[in-house]
Design brief:
Elements (H helix, E strand, L loop, with lengths): L5 H13 L21 H8 L5 H5 L5 H14 L7 H14 L29
Bound molecules: heme C.
InterPro entries: Cyt_c-like_dom_sf (IPR036909)
Keywords: Signal
GO molecular function: electron transfer activity; heme binding
């Protein structure tokens, strides 16, 4: 029996540690980072021609936010028009998987930590 080269042996021993942890997050396409779910290929083919998919995946918002962005790109960035079914698929995908984040906004400050409201100040004019 040949002796395994040390590097191979070390690697074999370390393999279990290098394996990714069981996926807690949604599975993603290794090339684009898009979450693998209904409609992702439509998004890939329509949304990664001009910029990286990273621009898509790092954003999130309501269906209306995404629609507004699409209309803006169509009006100013030469994004092509989609037929209704394609647009629905894209919006369903984006608003489901890149929707409004829970708790993305901080809680309002408690009243006692708020600055004085300049419109409500009792100005002593005596
Ligand atoms: C025809 C080219 C083109 C296509 C196709 C395209 N975009 Fe864009 N998009 C742009 C340009 C240009 C920008 C501005 C890039 C910049 O600011 O650097 C942009 C910016 C964005 C941004 C960032 C907006 C911001 O507030 O910074 C997002 C998110 C985005 N696109 C999503 C999409 C999605 C989703 C699709 C598919 C429906 C798509 N894009 C398809 C051209 C395109």
């Amino acid at each position: 029996m040949k002796t395994l080269p040390l590097a191979a042996l070390v690697l074999a021993l370390l393999m279990p540690l290098l394996m990714p942890l069981p996926a807690i997050a949604a599975e993603k396409d290794p090339d684009t980072g898009l979450i693998l779910a209904d409609g992702w290929e439509v998004v890939r083919s329509n949304c990664t021609a001009c910029h990286s998919a990273g621009l898509v995946t790092q954003n999130s918002g309501s269906r209306n936010y995404w629609l507004g962005l699409i209309r803006w790109m169509q009006a100013t960035q030469n994004l092509w028009q989609f037929d209704a079914a394609t647009e629905k698929t894209i919006l369903d995908y984006l608003s489901t998987h890149y929707g409004v984040k829970e708790g993305a906004r901080r809680q309002p400050l408690p009243r006692e930590l708020m600055p004085v409201n300049p419109y409500k100040m009792d100005v002593d004019r005596s």
